[in-house]
Amino acid sequence: MSQLTLALHRVQTQLAEAAHAAGRDAATVQLLAVSKTFPAEAVREVYAAGQRAFGENYVQELQAKAAELADLAIEWHFIGPLQSNKTRIVAETAHWVHAIDRLKIAERLSAQRPAHLPPLQVCVQVNVSGEDSKSGCSPADAPALLQAVAALPGLQLRGLMCIPEPTQDAATLAARFGVLRQLQQQMAAQGLVLDTLSMGMSADMAQAIAAGSTLVRVGTAIFGARHYPA
Ligand SMILES: *Cc1c(COP(=O)(O)O)cnc(C)c1O
């Protein structure tokens, strides 16, 4: 069995163990394989091992890989920050977008989503750490943005996404992930059902699952360390 297949199985096992430890059914946590910086051949190998959902951060890379792997039934998730001049490619190529943080981007994606495709599945990114450097809307601004995004015809609002600051401190992670869970409950009280909490990466997957994650975005633990081009 290949290294990538073994790594995928290891992550699937870790996901199941974290779900069981949290008293949850593992089937309620989707695994997104984050393939950014890795070649199409690596994606093909992980696909052959049964993985269907893959995440990309860079528009050109998504476009190139989606074209090269057009023979596979991949569900592409765009998880990176999105500039308004790049929305068209994403609207035409991706199935999901995770990092919507302002209405302008959502409006462009909705308008540019081709009519023959199902609505783009989207999450709103929330800045749960309060750091200036991190993207995402503030928790205070999230309800209005969510209501506005929910009204756009080319999009189907699915939920919330966050990237906490890197830490192994369990209490900090629980607090950060808890912000999304609270927003989800607040929106439900307003009649807006959000079924997706996109939270958890290689280093904090178990904590995210304990906090209610329904989708973990895992790169390094499947594909190995990334080497960014200079
Ligand atoms: C790169 C990336 C991931 C994957 O991170 P790992 O630590 O490699 O698992 C998840 N989410 C987002 C938004 C990313 O940019």
Structure, described:
It is a single chain. This protein is of the alpha/beta class and 230 residues long. The chain has 9 helices and 8 strands. It has an 8-stranded parallel β-sheet. Helix 4 links the parallel strand 3 and strand 4. Helix 4 crosses helix 5. The longest helix has 20 residues. The chain is globular. The model has no long low-confidence stretch (mean pLDDT 96). Pyridoxal-5'-phosphate (PLP) binds next to strand 8 and helix 9.
Concise synopsis of the structure shown:
The protein has helices at residues 3-21, 40-48, 59-68, 87-93, 103-112, 142-150, 170-189, 205-210, 220-223; strands at 30-34, 53-56, 75-78, 96-100, 120-125, 155-161, 196-198, 215-218. It has 230 residues and is α/β, with parallel strands linked by helices.
Topology:
Layout (H helix, E strand, L loop, with lengths): L2 H19 L8 E5 L5 H9 L4 E4 L2 H10 L6 E4 L8 H7 L2 E5 L2 H10 L7 E6 L16 H9 L4 E7 L8 H20 L6 E3 L6 H6 L4 E4 L1 H4 L7
Parallel strand pairs: 1-2, 1-8, 2-3, 3-4, 4-5, 5-6, 6-7
Helix pairs in contact: 4-5
The protein binds pyridoxal-5'-phosphate.
Pyridoxal-5'-phosphate binds next to strand 8 and helix 9.
